[in-house]
Amino acid sequence: MRSRQLSKKLYRLYYGNSVGRISVYLVSFALIFAIGGVLGLYLSGLSSKNQLDNGQLVGRVGEHSILPTTDVEWIYEFSNCEHLHYDFGAKNYVGYTAEELEEKIENCKVLELDSKNARIQVKIDEYCPLHYLLVYVDTNLLCVFRTNSKTYENEVIYEIEFNMGNFDKAMLEQLKNGIAFDTLEAINSYLESVET
What we know:
Blueprint: H1 2-16, H2 18-53, E1 71-78, E2 83-88, H3 98-104, E3 108-113, E4 117-124, E5 132-138, E6 141-147, E7 154-161, H4 169-177, E8 179-181, H5 184-195
Parallel strand pairs: 1-4
Antiparallel strand pairs: 1-2, 3-4, 5-6, 5-8, 6-7
């Protein structure tokens, strides 16, 4: 009996006037909103707890690393000629932090590293790719070395058979350490002057 009376009252409240209908809507909306908010907070708490438990959020907290989208500027400083060369791109170092880069790359110093930009300086104890290095290697053999412009490693590009008797002792000592030239023509001119 009471449930019938309650049903009639609700029916009259809902269909009887517009104010009653609006209040039922508002109460329903408020209840749904409250339940949804509580449920959302609960689920997001579970999600973050699972991520922490799986080790997805821990590890590199606060440490920046090179991302595929990071603009990376490499500054190569060649100590023998004091020239600078610039290169760009993440290369094979995506995921590396500043500490890891400095451990992995010899004479490396990370000047800047965040998610957007990185500036990395590398000192190389060679001449830059703009120079040729003439070196006495063995009896009657001189080699011309040049630093590779992609790998920055020193490579032999020519071998020259030459009579070492044309050089005095001081010149041979210089050649053992290597003499730098800007062009191959300059090397030819030097060797011609020694022969005459």
